[in-house]
Amino acid sequence: MAGQNGQGMTRVGWKIMASAFGCVKERYKVGTIEVALQSYTLESVAFHVLHTRIPTFSHDQLRAWWLADTTRWRALGHYLTRCRLTFDLLHNLDLVSRTAELARLFGIRFYDVLSRGSQFRVESMMLRLSRGRNMVAISPSIQQRAAMKAPEWIALTMEPQSRFYTEPVVVLDFQSLYPSVMIAYNYCYSTCLGRIHLLNNPPGLPYTFGASHLRLPPDPQSLLELVDEMNVSPCGVAFLPSRVKRGVLPVMLEEILNTRLMVKASLKKCGEDNASLRRILHSRQLGLKLIANVTYGYTSANFSGRMPCTEVGDSVVSKGREILERSIQLVNSHPTWAAQVVYGDTDSLFVHLPGRSRSQAFTIGQEIAATVTKMYPKPVKLKFEKVYLPCILQTKKRYAGYMYESPAQDEPVFDAKGIETVRRDGCPAVAKVLEKSLLLLFERKDVSLVKQYVQRQLLKVLQGRVSLQDLTFAKEYRGARGYKPGACVPALHLARQWTRRDPRKEPRTGERVPYVIIYGAPGLPLIQLVRCPSTVLADASLRLNATYYITQAILPPLHRCLALLGVDVNTWYTELPRPSTLTSSSTTLPGSSGPSIAHYFTPVACVGCGAATTLASTGKGAVGGQGLCGGCKANPQETVVLLGERIRTYERAVDHIQQVCEACVGCRLQEVECISLDCPLTHRRVVATQDLHAAHQLRVLLDDF
Q: Coiled coil located at which positions (predicted)?
C-alpha cells in the first residue's frame, strides 16, 4: 500500500507519533513552571489542572496494538488524546498569551521567558533605561567576580518563640520591602559612592567598588557639601541623595510599582465578561510584581551574577534589617498595645496579643501597620496581612494556624508554611495525617481526639489498608552526574536500575522519581528496600514497610508539632496492638541462593472470622475443608452466608472498578491494561483482583464444606 513502510506505519501515523513526541518533550517544562505537584506526568498534571483522568499503557502494549490491524486505532487514539490534552493544558494555563505578554513587558524573546532566569529580565529592563542616560553596564570577568568582597549582611530571621498559641497572633508584612528601600533611599550602582572609610582616599585614586573600581572626583569639595544629605546605609556605604542624582534602579522600580498599581486598578474596572482582557492585565501585573521582587537579587548574585555589587546588595539587606529591628522595638515597647513580637522573618512580623479577642486583634493590627508606616519614607509601608487564631509556631519558616483576613470572616482557613502539609518531599499520607491532626487540634483543642485519630491511621498502615499512592515518595532526580560517588539516593538507585535495562529510560534531570519502601530481611540497608511502585503492584509477595512509614515518615512531623504541647506521639504508637499478617516478604540477602526457611511459614487464620487457628497446613490443605476454626464449623449456616456475602463483595468491587476503567479507556475490556501510577484505582484494582482470587478459593471451600 502506498504511503506505508514495512511495519505498516502510514505517513499519517508517523506524523501523529512525531507530533505526540514533540508535545510530550515540552510538557514537563511547562508543568514544572506552572504548578507544584508531586508528579509531573501528563496523567498527574491533566488531573490536577484539567480534572481529567487518562490511562497509561506500557510500550509493549502500544507496540502490540500498532502491529495488529484490528487494534491500531487504539494506539493512534492514545497518542492523539495525549496531544489534545497537552494543547488543553496550554490553553487552560493561558501559557501562550501570558508568556507573550511577559515577553513584551520585559523586552525579551518568547522562549527566553520560559528558559532564562530573573537576571536576564532585570538586565533587559535596566539596560533600556540606562542607555537613555548615556550609561553602560560593566561586564566583570570570573576572576573579578571571585575577587569581589564577600557579602557581610543577611536578612533578619528571628528564632520564634515555639509554642501553641490559643490567643491572636497578628501577621504584618512590609509591602515590597527591598524595592521600597531602593526607591526611598536611592540605592543604585549609579549613586553609590562606596564605603565611607574609602572616601578619605586622595582624589583621583581608584578604590574597590563591587567587582570593579571607583574614583572620586578631582574636587572633593563637592562631596563635602553633600555630607549632610548623603544616604549612608547601616553597612557603611554612602549614596547620593535623590536631589543630586536619581539612580537607575530606583527610577525603574518606581515606574514598575506605579504601573502595577494602574494595571490593578484597570483590572478592577474590567468587567467579568471580558475574560481575555482580564487575563492580559493579570499577566501584566504579575510580571511587574515578579521583576520588582527579583531586582535586589540581581545586585547581590555574587557567584553567578551578571553585574553583582556587594556594596549595593549589602546596603539593601542591612537597611531592611534595620527597618525590621526598629519596628520590633516599637511594637514591644508600645504601652497601649501590650503586644510582643514572637517571630520576624526578612519583611514580616508575628505579633502576639495576649488576652485580646479576634476583633481587637484586627484593630490593633491596623494601628501597628499605620504607626510603623509613618516612621519611614515612602514607599516603605507595613501592611496588615492576617490574624492567626489559634496557631503553632514550630521553628524558623515553619508554622501553621487558622487564618482570618478580615473582621467579617466567620469561617477560618487553614494556612501552613514550611511544614509537611505543603512540602513535597514526603508521601501524601504524611501530609494528610498531619493536616487532619492540626485541624482537630485547632477546632476542638482536645489532644485526646487527635490521639484517637492518629492511632486509627497508624493501625490502617499496619494492616495494609492505605493506598499505595498515599505511601509513595517522589524525589527530584539531579542527573547521573549530580550526585557524589557512592551516594545512596533512592532516585539515583532506581535510575541506575532502569538505565541498565534500557539506557533511554533514564529520568529527565529535575524529574520526580516515585518510590516506596518495602520489608526486607534483617540487616539489609535501607537503599536495598527501595522499589518502584509498579514493581510492588506486580509482585504480591512484596509488602510495604509499615514500621518505616510510621516511625520515620508519619510520626516525626507530628512530634515536631505536638511536642510543643508536651505530647509524646511515639507512645501512641507503642500502645497500639500489632496486627498479624498473612503475607511475607520475598526479599533475600544479597548473594543468597533463595528465600530463607522463614519464607515458607505464614500464620494460619480462619477464613471465616479471621481468628488464629492451630492448623499446621497451609495452601490447598488449609482450603480443603481445614480453613475454618471450630466456631465457624459449629455454625455452618452462618458461615455459608458470611462467605457467600464476602464473595459477592469481592466480585462487585472488581466489577465496579472494571466499569470505571472502561469509561476512562473508552471501550469495553476483557482485562484492564492501564498501568498509571497516578490513578488511585490502580492499587485498588490490584487489591480487588487479589481478593477475587481469594473468592475462587472460598468457592472451593464452600463446595467442600
A: none
